[in-house]
Amino acid sequence: MAVRPMVNRDSQFFWDGTQAGELRIQVCNACGTKRFPPGPACRSCEAYDQGYEVASGEGTVFSYVVHRHPPVPGKELPIVIALVDLDEGVRMIGEVTGLPEADDLQIGDRLRVDFDRVDDELTLPIWRKA
Questions:
Q1: Res. 2 pLDDT band, cuts 50 70 90
Q2: Which of 11, 39, 45, 46 is the most buried (most CB within 10 A)?
Q3: The whole model's pTM is what?
Q4: Backbone angles phi, psi at 24, to 5 degrees
């Protein structure tokens, strides 16, 4: 069984988006500031009026790690985890899949989002080389 993310009223829109095959980024309706991870108030203007936009789903590897140990429930090792600078200007963390070898990723590589439907209630964003 996979480790499940915490879903609350601030992040529900994001998880509804992954179910629909969309990568959603929180946007302040008052000042337009984008943010990830989502939260209740804007970090720039402190407004509580938050919306979202659908991202292009493309970005660049800022940094990454190859997790080789300890085991992770529901996952096969090694796991490649990257910090992805989205083209929209926010940074997101996620698993990179589809690599021939775990070490076949470099800082600066272009990635594109894909979605892993774990079950009827959980779809995770994953990343693949663009």
A1: low
A2: 11
A3: 0.91
A4: -105, 140
